[in-house]
Design goal:
The longest helix is centred in the last third of the chain and has 20 residues, at about 305-325. This protein has helices at about 10-20, 25-35, 40-50, 80-95, 100-115, 120-130, 145-155, 230-240, 255-260, 285-295, 305-325, and strands spanning about 55-60, 65, 160-165, 170-185, 185-195, 200-205, 210, 215-220, 245-250, 270, 275-280, 300-305. By secondary structure, the chain is of the alpha+beta class.
Length: about 325
């Protein structure tokens, strides 16, 4: 295949783009793709390395080149759909970051990406940005350094000793064997075996303070609590210290009710083919009443009298709203 001769700078960018695909390339394959000799490929690889980019070379008949770790971050070469996806992802990260400082870093990265976008893509990104409304969500950002230390200890695994501030503000010193980090309800949680309490516990990452010597000795890995980490965390969040709680029998199949609930909202227990039980909670009776109205089925509620009053008040408002509806034409 005869290709036009590329300038050295263009050829190096093309070479980096090929290496970024993740596959291993032989010298002849690269030479054929770029329309040069294998000797030129060897020289270009040396140039790329001098620029600080790591290129690993595997000798032998089955060897070749692949991009490795280096001192510099290679230029990221994206097609149109990839560039739009990166810009959208950065915008979402900036709008709803659950890590301290990530919103600012995402904004800076987005500014750089948008500056480098071809003119044909900028209207698409601008239109998406202007046509999107980010609704406020309850998020508690966590310190990235704390999360990085927790994650490293999880993968060891290694013991962790830290100061923990409980829901009531009381401070305790905990020694744990960390298992996994979980992100749910806009918060980061550490699931760990509590050594002193001889049981599994879930800790909010934003309440953890790590001393300088927080990470300790290696420990054998443990199986997830109950054999199912997701189920354990979901059940634990369902028992969160809400101010108001209720046990609700929902006249709908458990699968249908679970599909209406967000992740971590609680455990749905099937009672029979057409009914299920759900443990619900909220900070006020009014919020709990509105939440139960979203279940979309008949319910029976065991709760404090304040919840009944809130449900009755909500029902009265909805009846008044229904009575005030004026039919409109379809034309």
């Amino acid at each position: 295949m005869i290709l036009p001769m590329l300038a050295t700078s263009d050829r190096l960018l093309r070479l980096l783009a090929l290496l970024q695909t993740g596959r291993q390339w032989t010298g002849p394959d690269l030479a054929d793709r770029l329309g040069v000799t294998t000797r030129t490929i060897r020289n270009d690889v040396d140039r790329v390395r001098r620029l600080g980019y790591g290129v690993d070379a595997v000798p032998g008949r089955a060897g070749g080149y692949r991009l490795g770790a280096g001192d510099a971050l290679p230029p990221l070469l994206l097609d149109d759909s990839e560039a739009v996806a990166v810009a959208v992802g950065l915008r979402l990260a900036a709008a709803g970051a659950a890590l301290t400082g990530v919103d600012e870093a995402a904004e800076r990265a987005l500014a750089k990406v948008e500056q480098m976008l071809p003119s044909r893509l900028r209207p698409r990104i601008r239109a998406l940005d202007e046509a999107t409304v980010a609704l406020g969500t309850s998020r508690t950002p966590a310190d990235p350094d704390v999360l990085a230390t927790l994650a490293t200890a999880c993968l060891g695994p290694r013991t962790l000793r830290f100061d923990y501030r409980g829901h009531g503000g009381d401070a305790t010193v905990r020694t744990v064997e960390p298992h996994r980090l979980v992100h749910a309800r806009g918060r980061w949680y550490l699931v760990a075996w509590d050594v002193d309490r001889d049981d599994w516990r879930t800790f909010r990452a934003d309440r953890i303070a790590l001393p300088a010597n927080a990470v300790g000795d290696p420990v054998p890995p443990r199986d997830p609590p109950g054999g199912d980490l997701a189920a354990y965390v979901t059940a634990g969040l369902a028992q969160a210290p809400w101010q108001v709680r209720a046990r609700v029998v929902v006249h709908a199949p458990a699968a249908d009710v679970a599909a209406r609930l967000p992740a971590g909202a609680g455990v749905v227990e099937a009672l029979d083919d057409g009914r299920c039980a759900y443990e619900a909670g909220a900070d006020t009776p009014e919020v709990l009443a509105r939440w139960l109205a979203l279940l979309g089925a008949d319910i029976e509620v065991d709760a404090a009298p304040e919840v009944a009053d809130a449900l009755a008040a909500l029902a009265d408002r909805l009846r008044r709203a229904a009575a005030s509806v004026r039919p409109v034409g379809t034309g």
